[in-house]
Amino acid sequence: MSSCNVLFVWVPKVAGTSIYRVLLAHGCPPHLWDIPSHPFANSGVATFGHVSISALVEHGTLTNEFLDSAFKFAFVRNPYERLVSLYFYLNRIRNLITMHCPTFLDFCLCLGEDTIPQVGFYNYFKLSQCNPMTRWTHDNHNRQIVDYIGRYENLQKDWSAVCSLSGLSGALPMSNNTAHDSYRNYYCMTSKRIIEKIYRDDLERYSYIY
Questions:
Q1: Residue 114 in contact with residue 106, Cβ under 8 Å?
Q2: What is the per-residue DSSP string for 105-167?
Q3: CA distance 21 to 158
Q4: Using CA atoms, how far apart are residues 188 and 44, in angstroms rounded to an integer?
C-alpha cells in the first residue's frame, strides 16, 4: 500500500482502466468521477476519471494542499492512434454522436466542426473525451499540473517509474482494450489534416508524429 498522496490524472484511452484497477488495491475510492461533488478526504490514492483537475479545485472537492503534497501522474499516447481507439470505443458503447458518424472520416469531420465540449466537472458529455490530452495534463494557463507524464508506447517501463516515484506497486492488467487495425489504415489526407489542427498542442508538446 502506498503511504503517500497520489493522484492519477486519467486521459481517456491511455491505459487508464488498467491503472485504475491497480489503484483500487491501494485504497483508491471507486467511481469518484460519478460523484465529483461528493466530499473527498484529500488524502491517499485517488483518481477522478476524466474530470478536470482545475474544476475539482474550483468546486472545493480537491484542496491545493492535497495537490501540493500528492504525486500527480498521467499517461499520453500518439494522438492519431488515440483517436482511432476513441472512435471504436464510443461506437462500442453506442454513443449517440458516433451513431451518426458511420465512418472514421465522418467522425473526424464532426470533430472539425468545433463540437468538442471542454473538459469539466463531469466526464461523459457528448465528445468531451476527445479533448486534446493537454486539457488534462495542463491548467487553463498552460502550466503542467502533473509531476510525471508516462507514454503509452513505453507503458511497462514508465509504469515502473511511476511505482518507484509514488510508492505504488502492482502489475498492470490488460483492461478495456479496443480492437482495431493499425491507426494508419483509417486516415486519409482530409482526416489527417483535421486531426493535426485539433491536436496540434499534443503533437508538438509530446513530439508525436504520424
A1: no
A2: HHHHHHHTTT--PPP-S-S-STTGGGS-THHHHB-TTS-B--SEEEEGGGHHHHHHHHHHHH-
A3: 17
A4: 45
Number of H helices, E strands in the chain: 9, 4
DSSP code per residue over 171-187 = PPPP-S------GGGG-
Q: Model confidence over 137-196: pLDDT tens digits?
A: 999 899 999 999 999 999 999 999 999 999 999 999 876 667 789 999 999 999 999 999
pTM beyond cutoff 0.90: yes
User: Contact at 8 Å (CB) between 129 and 43?
Assistant: no
In the numeric block, the cell 508506447 is attached to 153
Strand order in the sheet with 71-76: 45-47, 6-8, 71-76, 148-151
